[in-house]
Amino acid sequence: MQTRGVIYIHSSPSAVCPHVEWAIGRVLDGSVTVKLGWNPQSAERGTMRAERAWTGYAGMGAEFAKALAQWPMLRFEVTEDPSAGVDGERIMHVPGRGVYRAATSAGGDIMIAEDRIRALLATTTSAEALRGGLDQLLGLDWDRELEPYRQAAGGAEQSWLSQVG
């Protein structure tokens, strides 16, 4: 089942950039030499940013995120569009905060599973606690930390990665 998505490396130390490309290429079974076309990240001096659209099988977005999470200093997002019988996905990583992962709708909205909402309702005792719990389920802290890096991307050029075979 083919799908597509985007890898956003919001910030990476320059020395780590070749390792990031290698990790992405490894997910693609080494069938593609990955060159991301790095640009300076104006939101964090001394780091680089890149983004790349990809096509491949359902679940590949999670594999990209797993490979990238080996470098805890990276700020990144990986998206995967929904495909037949499979929800879309958004995975974010922020240093010191770790990985946030959520299912997404066809329009890209985060979807919170019914059981997670019920658990939150069963364990919160105030409106403030409910609001904080919903913010956590929606990944608000990750979004807040990544937003300055997203804004610094401007109109960066985008090209595609595709798994061969």
From TrEMBL:
Protein name per the record: DUF3145 domain-containing protein
Lineage top rank: taxon: Bacteria
Species, as recorded: Glycomyces paridis
